[in-house]
Amino acid sequence: MTTFVNYLGSSVGASLIVAAGAVCIGALPTMAQSSFEAQFDGISKRLKSVWDEEVVAAARMAYPEIDVNLMRQVSFEIPDDACDINVSIDPNAKRFVVPISHNYYIFTLMYAQTSLAYLKFGSDFSSADETVSQTRQAMNPQMSTYYELCNGERGEGLQVRAPMMEILGSPEAYLDLQEEMNSLPGIRGDADEIAGLPIFFVTLHEYGHVHLGHVSAIPSPEEEFEADMFAANVLARAELPIVFGTYGLILYDSISLRRDRRELNCRLQELARMSREERPVQSEFWVAGEERRRLERLTAALETSFETECTQR
Q1: How far does the chain reach from its first CA to its final CA, in angstroms?
Q2: How would DSSP label each residue in 198-221?
Q3: What is the Cα–Cα distance from 297 to 310, expressed in whole angstroms?
Q4: Rounded Cα distance, 237 and 62, in Å
Q5: Residue 160 near residue 106 (C-beta atoms within 8 A)
Q6: What CA–CA distance (Å, rounded) separates 177 from 282?
Q7: Backbone phi, psi, residue 255, to 5°
Q8: Cβ(79)–Cβ(56) below 8 Å
Q9: Interatomic CA distance for residues 113 and 188, integer angstroms
Q10: What does pTM read for this prediction?
Q11: What are the pLDDT digits (tens) for 263-305?
Q12: Which of 58-67, 74-83, 138-147, 170-179 tops mean pLDDT?
């Protein structure tokens, strides 16, 4: 798959996440957001290129009747409101806008970073189960705080700590591992795939509602599940790991707090199960022997984590 989000490995990404292990986000503009905006034109162009060349092609194979022209109208934009995460699709006007704020993007990268570290270093970094559990434990309260910030006075920022540093236990260990990871061949492309899939999954999910004829302002649980399956089928046809799309749903639903947590985790469990069973075989990165086995263990750990919360009453 084409490289499309050179941010984790870029100088801006390094200053925001790699060097500090934390970054300030907020409902009002921050210095980090200004740096992100300076790079956004390149980021959006790469996202758009991969969407048009690869995602749309996979969607057409999975759903031959799909409106290819509407899908290619997608535009990735920085929203005026830093807290805006609502994808806007108007089939009549051929308008399809995906907001990507600095805040949402940072959360996406935080999830991607721990997954990438586990895939590259395995037990030298952490176990699959610990990678999943500690990442979720670190991110869930921070996303809840962010939601409160967006719905409050909007006068304060939020210092988001990278879960990878929490797993390693110290800034020094974090910096050492990050330096080692940055020296690996092809690391930017690998980081790009993981960081971009949550964005594409949520975009496909929202487009799925339109394609499937869902017209409710608040989709039913059944409609949400159908949109999940639409997005998952497209990623599977593109031979990409569905499981990283779950990060997009976790972020989207956690920030908006629109959904029952148990219902969401049941949907996430099904997506992890699909990802485990699909087992993409064409992408060079995902078929590397040991990394492939780590991906399977990470997917199984995510499935177990989601299943635990799905079955809780």
Answers
A1: 40
A2: HHHHHHHHHHHHHHTT---SS--H
A3: 20
A4: 6
A5: yes
A6: 29
A7: -70, -40
A8: no
A9: 12
A10: 0.86
A11: 888 888 988 888 877 655 445 555 567 888 898 899 999 999 9
A12: 58-67
